[in-house]
Design brief:
This protein is an alpha+beta fold and about 280 residues long. It is built from ten helices and four strands.
């Protein structure tokens, strides 16, 4: 008889191991394993006088419902990401990480403030160097230097433009746009247009006003580069805040689902309900 009990228990152990093989991956990078022990068989193996009657299912159902835990609070990964994509720090506040939220919001405010400051400074310096160029660079002196260099008649603008296109890679635009102000300070062919040019000829570098002008343009461009960098910080802050909020919500949900539960449930076996002792592990 003792051997018979041992054999039954061996079968039960094998059944438990088989049930353990039902371990399956769950969502959010977790895995679940469930061990189930058929209690009726166990009782039979132990030769106890437990009879599975019509009243037993009610008891087992009661035990099964005791196993149920209150629903774990979960956080929406998508909602956390969208909040931070719209306003950095908002997703962190949704995750109850108030310090992180304040940090991302501070970076956002600081980056926008820096962008406004440097962009405004760049615009002011642009106005300054354009006024300087209007005062010290003469378009008529430039065309006169073209006339002297290539033999065009004064005021023969068609000839002057043709010689300009034939001999240089850059030209003087008809309107005072960004290319106009860039070309007159950047290329030597426009040297003669500066009012302090010593030689008054093209392809020279003998104007201090031209040198001062290029320095003013460089300082203005430096301000715009800093404004561009600030706008890049804004975009990166949105992206990092969005990823961090989504990851934190994901980790929170994982922490809520991990753990061990223990209880009883009913399972059908040959059209009869059987009480089963179940251990569920999530990791």
């Amino acid at each position: 008889m003792r051997n018979s009990k041992s054999i039954w228990r061996l079968f039960l152990l094998i059944g438990a191991l088989a049930a353990a093989s039902h371990a399956q991956p769950a969502t959010d990078a977790t895995a679940v394993a469930t061990l189930e022990f058929p209690l009726a068989a166990w009782c039979q193996a132990a030769q106890q006088d437990l009879v599975w009657s019509n009243h037993t299912p009610d008891l087992a159902l009661h035990a099964m419902f005791q196993e149920e835990k209150p629903a774990a609070v979960r956080r929406s990964v998508a909602r956390a990401a969208i909040f931070s994509a719209v306003l950095p720090g908002a997703g962190q506040v949704y995750n109850r990480s108030y310090l992180k939220g304040l940090l991302f919001l501070g970076v956002e405010v600081g980056a926008w403030a820096a962008y406004a400051k440097y962009n405004s400074s760049g615009n002011r310096k642009t106005d300054q160097f354009e006024r300087f160029a209007d005062q010290h660079w003469s378009e008529s002196e430039y065309w006169a230097s073209i006339d002297r260099a290539f033999g065009c008649s004064p005021s023969d603008r068609e000839c002057e433009k043709q010689k300009e296109r034939e001999n240089f890679s850059h030209y003087l635009p008809d309107t005072k746009n960004q290319t106009y102000y860039e070309n007159i300070g950047k290329y030597d062919q426009f040297n003669a247009g500066w009012d302090d040019s010593i030689s008054g000829e093209i392809l020279q570098r003998d104007s201090q006003n031209r040198l001062a002008y290029t320095t003013m343009r460089r300082l203005a461009n430096d301000q715009f580069r800093k404004a561009t960098l600030s706008s890049s910080v804004v975009m990166v802050n949105h992206l990092v805040s969005m990823v961090e909020a989504a990851y934190s919500a994901h980790k929170f949900n994982q922490a809520q689902t991990k753990g061990t539960s223990f209880g009883m449930k009913l399972k059908k076996h040959h059209d009869e309900l059987m009480p089963v002792l179940a251990v569920r592990v999530v990791w």
